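PROTEIN DESIGN WORKSHEET
SECTION A - STRUCTURE
LENGTH: 597
TOKENS:
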């Protein structure tokens, strides 16, 4: 069989790959637009919402690393059909979810499909365009913001024309591009991997990763799979307390890395290991911040400018899309390390400005700088690795990306959730000490335990002041709920509570949310509250309003905190750029040089 692809075959493969990555962007657009919706419906903490968002990413690492090792044997086409099926299933499972566990399982399913896509399209692109790796990988990864723009616009247009539909329906849109690229891949031919074509032995590929890379990958995989999947989703066992779990997984990771190092007789490439570590701030600065940006920008965009916060996502992703499509020009004047350092300066300054003082039109100026800054992070790292470690083939290319995606679920998304929880807790200490007494709890992150305000306890505040009027309130609200199909469906998803006062408050909040947009419901709601219960309802509403104000303030606080991560990139890639300058400048390595022929 002739392994050389014609120009037509190359284009079909490239654009099928483009749409497959855009499908993942569709799913991401949904989570950005509606993470607050399902978080509120199921009374999830900031950490839980962040963990769900991150769990769409760390499973990518599993399939990326796995397929890097076996894709030479399995081929590329069948895995891409599996990826399409997994992404479609993730949308359906999200639509049908009834709580945290279901949302988490659907997110993991989406991540596994996304991982197969990355494992195939990145090395395939590098093999098809061996002389233009960074440029073509950057253009290929324009598919990510393209999917975000298309998905967000679809959600906004449908909500605008229908008056708003359930987030469950929006979760299904990922099925459309998944089917599309599945059909496109059917006639596609794939290239032979560049490493295989050059005759580089399989063991030489493994040596690029060595002990150092294997230790980091094993630690993160054990921590995530053992914690998120086996313990949290499937409930096979109860995790030890955070400190023991973290350090136990670290020891296990070192053990796996040691075995890998002994087999390969390699420590691994130090620069490659350093790049894997740097994927933690890269992923947090780009994907984690984007994951939260709509929720964090809502008080800024809607409060200061009166603009739908979804436009922030479209604006940011649109800039990224255009700049990535025309990546060739910027790559002619600067090397990947220099681009990364400059990007870090732009992102860090913009995020801090947004969080600290930007208001009015200056919000758009700062946001534009932020969008430009994050544009080249991911594709530049991929191009850097492809050009400097070609011997590693698909493994090094996919492992470095996998480290970033693992860090999203383990560190990136949760740490921003923790930052929000800490901001709300600190504000509660200052302005709502009653919340500290009645709604505070402990929330784990890595080896630490943090004080947080439990949203489910906030929603039950005031129950003790209802004077046992819960049954009367519930009895009055039940016909109101039964007479409204949307309320009836939402009420069916509420877990019943044996405490009648707590159940009454849950029903009250359900109707009150809808009553803010429906005058008839507002009248029915007011009529359902007995005089003896009004003190409790007043206390409940007051604390709900104050907690909402705290969440808005926490948005800016988290943006300032997020500026730390691109700041790290400025220092790290600045040093890498200086290192190459002292050695005659940055130059891509050719496989013929590496192989010695």
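SECTION B - SEQUENCE
RESIDUE ASSIGNMENT:
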């Amino acid at each position: 069989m002739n392994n050389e692809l014609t120009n037509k075959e190359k284009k079909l493969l490239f654009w099928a790959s483009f749409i497959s990555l855009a499908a993942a962007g569709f799913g991401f657009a949904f989570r950005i637009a509606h993470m607050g919706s399902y978080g509120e419906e199921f009374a999830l903490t900031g950490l839980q919402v962040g963990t769900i968002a991150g769990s769409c990413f760390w499973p990518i690492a599993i399939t990326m690393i796995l397929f890097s090792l076996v894709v030479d044997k399995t081929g590329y086409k069948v895995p891409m059909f599996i990826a399409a099926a997994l992404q479609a299933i993730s949308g359906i499972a999200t639509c049908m979810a009834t709580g945290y566990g279901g949302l988490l399982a659907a997110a993991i399913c989406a991540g596994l499909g996304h991982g197969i896509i990355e494992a195939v399209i990145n090395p395939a692109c590098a093999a098809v365009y061996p002389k233009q790796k960074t440029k073509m990988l950057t253009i290929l990864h324009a598919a990510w913001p393209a999917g975000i723009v298309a998905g967000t616009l679809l959600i906004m247009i449908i909500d605008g024309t229908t008056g708003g539909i359930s987030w469950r329906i929006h979760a299904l849109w990922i099925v459309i591009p998944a089917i599309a690229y599945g059909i496109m891949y059917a006639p596609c031919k794939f290239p032979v991997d560049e490493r295989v074509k050059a005759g580089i032995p399989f063991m030489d590929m493994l040596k690029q990763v060595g002990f150092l890379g294997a230790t980091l990958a094993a630690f993160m995989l054990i921590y995530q799979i053992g914690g998120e999947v086996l313990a949290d989703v499937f409930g096979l066992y109860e995790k030890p307390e955070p400190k023991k779990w973290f350090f136990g997984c670290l020891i296990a990771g070192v053990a796996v890395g040691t075995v890998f190092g002994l087999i390969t007789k390699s420590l691994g490439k130090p620069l490659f290991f350093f790049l894997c570590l740097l994927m933690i701030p890269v992923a947090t600065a780009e994907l984690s911040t984007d994951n939260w940006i709509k929720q964090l920008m809502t008080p800024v965009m809607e409060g200061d400018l009166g603009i739908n916060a979804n436009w922030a996502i479209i604006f940011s992703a649109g800039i990224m899309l255009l700049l990535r499509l025309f990546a060739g020009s910027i790559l002619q004047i600067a090397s990947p390390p220099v681009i990364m350092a400059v990007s870090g300066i732009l992102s860090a300054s913009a995020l801090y400005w947004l969080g600290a003082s930007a208001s009015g039109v200056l919000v758009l100026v700062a946001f534009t700088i932020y969008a430009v800054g994050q544009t080249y992070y991911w594709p530049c790292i991929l191009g850097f690795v492809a050009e400097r470690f070609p011997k590693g083939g698909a493994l090094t290319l996919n492992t470095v990306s996998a480290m970033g995606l693992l860090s999203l679920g383990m560190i990136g998304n949760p740490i921003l959730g923790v930052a929000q929880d800490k901001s709300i807790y600190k504000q509660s200490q200052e302005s709502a000490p009653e919340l500290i007494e009645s709604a505070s709890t402990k929330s784990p992150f890595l080896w630490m335990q943090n004080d947080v305000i439990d949203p489910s306890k906030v929603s039950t505040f005031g129950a003790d002041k209802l004077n046992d009027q819960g049954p009367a309130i519930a009895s009055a609200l039940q016909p109101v709920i039964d007479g409204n199909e949307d309320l009836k469906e939402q009420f069916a998803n509420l877990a019943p509570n044996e405490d009648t006062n707590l159940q009454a408050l849950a029903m009250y909040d359900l109707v009150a949310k809808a009553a803010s947009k429906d005058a008839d419901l507002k009248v029915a709601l007011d009529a359902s509250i007995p005089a003896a219960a009004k003190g409790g309802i007043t206390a409940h509403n007051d604390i709900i309003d104050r907690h909402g104000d705290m969440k808005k303030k926490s948005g800016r606080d988290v943006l300032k905190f997020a500026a730390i991560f691109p700041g790290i990139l400025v220092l790290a890639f600045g040093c890498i750029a200086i290192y190459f300058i002292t050695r005659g400048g940055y130059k891509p390595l050719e496989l013929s040089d590496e192989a010695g022929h």
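SECTION C - NOTES
The beta strands are 440-445, 448-453.
The longest strand covers residues 440-445.
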